[in-house]
Amino acid sequence: MKGLTIERIAVHRDGRGVLFEPIGAEALASGALRNVHVATMAPGAVRGGHRHLGATEQFCFCGEIAFIAQDPLGNREKFEFTPDECVRITIAPGIAHAAVNTGTKETFFVCFSDKAAGTDPQEKVALV
Prior knowledge:
Blueprint: E1 4-8, E2 12-14, E3 17-19, H1 25-30, E4 35-41, E5 46-52, E6 57-62, E7 65-70, E8 76-80, E9 86-91, E10 96-101, E11 107-113, E12 122-124
Antiparallel strand pairs: 1-9, 2-3, 4-11, 5-10, 5-12, 6-9, 6-11, 7-8, 7-10
């Protein structure tokens, strides 16, 4: 979908757990990031269901997630990820998005945005 980029992130696993880099070096070097937030999702929980009118967002997670996106013309796509994947999704302004924890364990995600919290208008969109 135009306005949406999905990257599988390199994951390093050992007996201690998982290590991955949630944001790329280019985004860090650009100096454009203005907001970072972390949230958890209980099994079956939905996060999102909106579009940012001016912000580009990067949504990063590991786990069993269904990600739904819809472009401004109403074209919708659903992407499903396995418990072993770590993914970074870049979402352009105007792309509606929602994530659903389809697994049996709580998971978390990290979001990075080029707008400060509370400065970018959002529009609710029923995706799930």
